[in-house]
Each structure stands twice: as C-alpha cells, then as structure tokens.
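pasting for the record
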Amino acid sequence: MITAIVQYKLPPHIDLAACAAHYRDIAPGFRAVPGLISKQFIYSEDGWAGGVYLWRTRAAAEAFYKGPWLDGIRERYRMDPQIKFFQTACITDNVTGAVHLSDAAR
C-alpha cells in the first residue's frame, strides 16, 4: 500500500467553509477511482489544503495524479500540487478494530 500526501496553496478568499463545501461536492466522485482505498480531505488554517490518500499501488496513484485531476488543480489553484509518497506498512483501524498489514510488510 502507498500513502500519498498531497498539498496545494489555496487562494486567500477560500476559507474552511468554502473548502469544505467543495470537498463535500467532489467526495462521492472518489469512490470510483481505480486503486484508491481511502482519501482524507484536509485543510490547514495557514491556507494549505489537499488530501491524504491510501492507494493499493504507486502505479494507481501516479496514474490518477496525471491528466484531468492535475489539470483541475492547476486551473483552480494556479500551482502544481506537492505530492509525497510513503510505503504504508501497517494501518490501525479503530472503527473496525482491525490492524491491516501491507503485502510488503508480511
């Protein structure tokens, strides 16, 4: 599994309420993204926003972060997003009470 942390700087007129409203509008579309396990939509008081994504593979993540998604970020925020990839060895899920190990960690 791969965790990707994506960040971009918001224009000054986009506050938490506006950002959250946009996230609510687009969140359902992420249910159909190939290879995506989960996404957390994030916002910081210093004007940065983005997402923490959990992917099945790095190839799935890299495929998603090209094309229409990248074009949309560039158009809305006038910058390329900062993306950092991490190997995800283990996840503690307190909702289900499970601990998930990645294949690489077994």
